[in-house]
Amino acid sequence: MGMIDVGEKPVVKREATAAGNIRLSQKTLKKVRQGEIRKGDPLLVAEVAAMTAAKQTHILIPHCHQIPLDMVRVTFELAPWGIEAQCLVRCRAKTGVEMEALLGVSVALNTIWDMVKYLEKDDQGQYPGTMMTDIRVIRKEKG
Fold first, then answer.
1. What is the SS3 assignment for 116?
2. Which of 63, 69, 75, 77 has its Cβ near the most Cβ atoms within 10 Å?
3. Are 72 and 23 in contact (CB under 8 A)?
4. Each residue's pLDDT expressed in tens, for the chain with a length of 143 residues
5. Is residue 5 annotated as part of the catalytic site, yes or no?
6. Helices within the chain (DSSP H only)
7. Whole-structure pTM value
């Protein structure tokens, strides 16, 4: 058990894209669009958080190899129901980068939640409509 031995595998170009959604209220989305979030621009902060998370995957996920990443790109699309985040990770390595992409998109969504939570709470301090959903790998490439 433990880490898989990839010592004999060849180094090849690898790429993975993960995506996920956060459902937000119309009031919150309006404030995001207008740049009126107290903590700053949640998309900019979430982009930096996602890149940092992708680079730290080997620390957070016990059996992941440390992979030198060539590129991490995070994009966001505002929709009527919330925000979709995508995280593209590229490297030249002996093992894939889908976990880096998944962790990147997950941390991006968590960061957005943290930055807008004061707008999403109801009178009891709960989040009845806020939800992260559909976190998934949408593409993986090797070679």
1. helix
2. 69
3. no
4. 777 888 788 889 999 999 999 999 999 999 999 999 999 999 999 999 999 999 999 999 999 989 999 999 999 999 999 999 999 999 998 888 999 999 999 999 999 999 999 999 999 999 999 999 999 999 999 98
5. no
6. 26-33, 42-55, 57-60, 98-120
7. 0.94
Q: Residue for token digits 């080997």?
A: 58
Which residue shows structure tokens 């939570």? 117
* 8 A C-beta contact, residue 97 and residue 74: no
- Annotated catalytic residue, options 5, 41, 70, 114: 114
In the chain the domains, ranked by start, together with CATH numbers, are: 12-142 (3.30.70.640)
